[in-house]
Design goal:
Helix content is about 50%, strand content about 10%. By secondary structure, it is of the alpha/beta class.
Amino acid sequence: MGPAPRLALFDCDGTLVDSQHAIVAAMAAAWRSEGLLLPEATMVRRVIGLPLTDAIARLAPESVAAVRDRLADRYRDAHRVLRRDQGRGEPLFPGVREAVLAIGQTGTLLGIATGKSTRGVLRLLEHHELRDLFVTIQTPDSGPSKPHPDMVFRALTETGVEPFNTVVIGDTVFDIEMAHAAGAAALGVSWGYHGPEELMAAGANHLVETPADLPTAVAALLAARS
């Protein structure tokens, strides 16, 4: 028998791509459409990684459901317009492509666990020519989102990998909490939207400073758990 399969499960926004500018701008457009006081950019960055409905509920907790629904619709409209503006896209963080390729070349399976919709993440991966690298893509379209462990469990079912052979890579405490709830290792990245201190306090097993550090850190975490 060969070695047991291993899985590196990546978050998307704030980990693979720098999506904050488009998200902040789209949220502002949505709030303007309802005549509401704009949420601070720092608050918007705090909810990146959550499904849109959850993010809006946190940013507008006093709003009634009908207003939150309209905010979600206006956000989607604004984000769609911003995607057409090449200067307001969702670029990969420098070095991420090379790091993902290097991890995959070790034989470790690659997956995605994101708060984006399935349509959105597929469009993003195809745009960056990364779609074929990932063997499992999990989104809130099929069940609970972060920090609930459901997306990790679905990825494990699809790939046949055990939790102790899995590492979740993300930039928010939602990713770290999801990993621990599923019994996977949690690898925090420092270039995203939650601070390194928060990630460590949430229980990250390790923290990396640059994408170039990812392949070594993933290998070390998985080796330590095997």
